[in-house]
TrEMBL record:
Residues 192-352 form the Glycosyl transferase family domain. This is Glycosyltransferase involved in cell wall bisynthesis. One of its GO terms (molecular function) is glycosyltransferase activity. Keywords: Transferase. Residues 105-175 form the Glycosyltransferase subfamily 4-like N-terminal domain.
């Protein structure tokens, strides 16, 4: 089987959608090596995350040629369908909610949809972006023979908001970056601890500091803890204007001295940041999946997260769930984890077993099944 991918973000994005793209291609290359995988991208460039993929013998990359080298966006949306190599494909898979128009009829078309948060919560987005994203995902779902949703939550949203035929949707989960399977050494942890001036114990939160991620609720919960067990909160993520609300809340609740902000953490430092944490808290209001939950569980950290949305799918039945709109609920959960080591260990153990379903060999098998059924 010959499989082509719309792979722009594999080469250009080194967080969410890029990590997903590389995870998928790596998993398929390793666990379904009999196939040929072609990456179509307007930019093909060297990077430590990309080079090992391109070195595999069953993977090749193709970029724009001729006049399309000056109109790369047009090539990605339409010109890629004119590439001679397209004719030999059996499958074309859009990895990030898009498919080019004009693909030959004989090719089975697959698109992965990660979330429809911009439709469910348009207030968090620029209206122009909402219109563009919505038009692209509707077009891709219309063209596709199969739509891969990365969670049942996303599958439900596809049915509710853009009326995709349920028979067309397949839920195939995603996995975390392999870096989180590696145990940081004592020396590596010491370096990271010194680099970010971390305390011996801390509550960790990772994600863009924006309203939907709801980190202000964590600050409110922190203030409710008895001072005897109140440990610092380390917030790792890009800042937005919402950060002002978080800081104001911490000042008002008199816990500003317990807040540590890290806006430019190296991706290579994240495993140590997770592994040194006492507990990971993810009080997000809504996600398509919630990869930080997997990262924390892979790192051997107990997880507290939100009820509803996709969080039970990502973290499993044994994580601790709270009402994300209720600081008292979150505070009580924190109190329990911080004062009951047996509870923390139980959550870690059972959650670690649960996430075996997100291993790359499982994901590769599920994707091949979708390809064959398309």
């Amino acid at each position: 089987m010959q499989v082509g991918f719309e792979a722009k973000r594999l080469f250009t994005n080194f967080t969410g959608l890029g990590n997903y793209s590389r995870f998928v291609v790596n998993a398929l290359s390793e666990f379904a090596p009999e196939n040929i995988y072609t990456l179509y991208s307007p930019k093909i460039k060297s990077h430590p995350e990309v080079d090992p993929i391109l070195a595999r013998t069953n993977i090749k990359a193709i970029g724009p040629t001729g006049g399309f080298t000056f109109f790369k966006g047009l090539w990605r949306s339409w010109g890629v369908s004119l590439s001679p190599s397209i004719q030999s494909l059996n499958i074309f898979h859009g990895l990030s909610q898009e498919l080019p128009s004009g693909l030959p009829k004989h090719i089975r078309k697959i698109v992965t949809v990660h979330d429809l948060i911009y439709i469910r919560y348009p207030k968090f987005y620029n209206p122009i972006d909402v219109a563009i994203y919505t038009a692209k995902v509707k077009s891709a779902c219309r063209i596709a023979d199969k739509v891969i949703a990365i969670s049942q939550q996303t599958a439900d949203d596809l049915i509710e908001f853009i009326k995709v035929d349920p028979a067309k949707i397949e839920v195939v989960y995603q996995g975390s970056h392999p870096i989180f399977k590696t145990k940081a050494s004592t020396q590596e942890k010491a370096i990271v601890k010194a680099k970010y001036n971390l305390p011996d114990e801390y509550i960790l939160n990772v994600g863009t500091i924006e309203e939907r991620k709801n980190v202000k609720r964590l600050v409110e919960a922190l203030a409710l803890l008895p001072e005897s067990i109140r440990i610092p909160v380390v917030i790792v993520g890009r800042a937005t204007d919402y950060l002002k609300e978080v800081i104001a809340c911490a000042q008002e609740r008199k816990v500003i001295d317990k807040i540590i902000l890290i806006h430019q953490a190296s991706f290579q430092d994240l495993p140590a940041l997770y592994q040194m944490a006492t507990v990971f808290v993810y009080p997000s209001l809504f996600e398509g999946f919630g990869i930080p939950l997997l990262e924390a569980i892979e790192s051997g950290v107990p997880v507290i997260t939100s009820q509803g949305s996709c969080f039970h799918e990502a973290a499993g039945p044994d994580a601790i769930y709270v009402d994300p709109n209720n600081a008292e609920s979150l505070g009580a959960a924190l109190n329990n984890v911080l004062t009951d080591s047996a509870l923390a260990e139980r959550v870690i153990s059972t959650s670690t077993k649960y996430i075996k379903r997100f291993e790359p060999q499982v994901i590769a098998s599920d994707l091949i099944r979708v390809y064959k059924n398309a």
